[in-house]
Amino acid sequence: MLAISFAPILVRASDAPVSVQGMYRMLFTFLIMLPFGGKQLKTLTAIGRKDWLLLIAAGFFLALHFLLWMASLTYTSIASSTILLALEPVFVMVGAFFVFKDRPSKFAVAGMLVALVGAISIGSGDVGLSQRAFFGDLLSFLGALAVAVNMLIAKQIMRRLPSYLYSLIVFGITAACFAGYNVALGIPMTGYPAKEWLVFALLAVVPTVFGHMIFNWLLKYVKPTTISMTVLAEPVGASLLAMLLFREMVTGFQLFGGLLIIVGLVLYMRAEKQEAAAVAAPADPLQA
């Protein structure tokens, strides 16, 4: 959780275009993972055409997520950007309803509505500050939608692929998408000072390897719902770091909206946990 909280801080600390930051974050993570592939890399030829298309789509939407979210930090505050990004589980729930026919409970829907009211509160407050801040909020909101699509694709394809192989391929495709974007727009990918290369490396190591990859590893030992609750830690940790490092104070709208989003997500996660426990419980009490 601490590692992930540093992601927006590192993005803000860099002067390089966000598409370059995103490209090297994914490329360096891919290179760090590659030596640990072992036997799993030999199964690449067994992946079918449909799964390759899904992997490409997952990489594209992950690149879109990073591009939108990282760009939002140029326009709005770290607090607003990370709080709105925490809406990802809500969007996944909505998408799962339409794609997988997963029917959420009433408490989960209630949590979603509370979180959305919080998001509207943050957006309306930032409109009062400036159109620039509201535009940044919109980018973060769209970034949360993009990563939700990525998660829905991952849920479908990881039934057939190991998590390591999925992550390795998708990270590589994401880096390639960023490279294509940079080439198309004529954005230079080399010639940056040593400080920028350090930030690129830290983005790969700190929030990705010590954040997201550790969460994937913990899935072997901890319930997914428990890990999902850590999404609440990023806006809190990132906002505190932003106050300390950039003197970005949290506004009343951000505090109120952020609290609503956290309450809504807690309601949603608790409803999801109770539903999972009910499904796992034996039908015959004697079997317990």
Explain this structure to me?
The chain has 288 residues and is mainly alpha-helical. It has a domain at 2-37 and 47-104 and 130-216 and 232-247. It is built from 13 helices and no strands. Helix 3 crosses helix 10 (194-218) and helix 7 runs antiparallel to helix 8 (131-157).
Topology diagram in text:
Layout: H1 2-5, H2 7-13, H3 18-33, H4 49-75, H5 78-85, H6 88-99, H7 106-129, H8 131-157, H9 163-185, H10 194-218, H11 224-228, H12 233-246, H13 252-280
Helix pairs in contact: 2-10, 3-4, 3-9, 3-10, 4-8, 4-9, 5-8, 5-12, 6-8, 7-8, 7-13
Short description:
It contains 13 helices and no strands. It has 288 residues and is mainly α. It has a domain at 2-37 and 47-104 and 130-216 and 232-247.
Largest sheet: none
Rg estimate, integer Å: 19 Å
Number of strands: 0
Secondary-structure class: mainly alpha
Residue-averaged pLDDT, rounded? Answer: 84
Number of H- or I-type helical stretches: 13
Strand content: under 5%
Shape: globular
Query: How much helicity do the residues have?
Result: over 70%
Could you spell the SSE succession in H and E letters? HHHHHHHHHHHHH
Which runs of at least 5 residues are low in confidence (pLDDT < 50)? 284-288
